């Protein structure tokens, strides 16, 4: 069985009837959704372990700073209780995995934050409470246009 994407890249797609195309598209979407749910479940399980480790270590907060524009963006750094993240501080917690998980909240609440003029911000995890706070700034280009009419006579 070929996927929707493979069909689009081959001449075989053109030979399919519309109902066949619709069915392949439906199956492709179902497969994508299944894989997404599976991946999210793995990420959620890893985060719960990280959160447990952070709590056991007495960490109060984890902050991820991010910025971007021109259609690309990423996290700039991670701090734990205000200090730069170091693997030796909290053993077993991977900086990139933790940042990626917390950035999911930014991507959900401010989808497309990195597009065009972009934005920046911080996402902070309150470790004891298990709550996330996002402080986001959106960049945009603005115009202020005025028209006036003056009598010269």
Distance between the termini: 81 Å
Low-pLDDT residue spans: none
Q: How many beta-strand elements?
A: 5
Q: Which oligomerization state do the chains in this entry correspond to?
A: single chain
Count of discrete alpha- or pi-helical segments spanning 4 or more residues: 4
Strand order of the largest sheet: 3-2-1-4-5
The major β-sheet equals: 5 strands, antiparallel
- The secondary-structure class comes to alpha+beta
Radius of gyration: 23 Å
How much β-strand is present in the residues? 15-25%
Mean pLDDT metric:
88
Shape by Cα distribution:
flat
Short description:
The protein is α+β, with helices and mostly antiparallel strands. The protein has 4 helices and 5 strands; from the N terminus they run H-H-H-E-E-E-H-E-E.
Give a written overview of the molecule:
The protein has 153 residues and is an alpha+beta fold. It is built from four helices and five strands. It has a five-stranded antiparallel β-sheet with strand order 3-2-1-4-5, with helices on one face. The radius of gyration is 23 Å and the shape is flat. The termini are far apart. The model has no long low-confidence stretch (mean pLDDT 88).
Give the tags:
153 residues, alpha+beta, 5-stranded antiparallel sheet
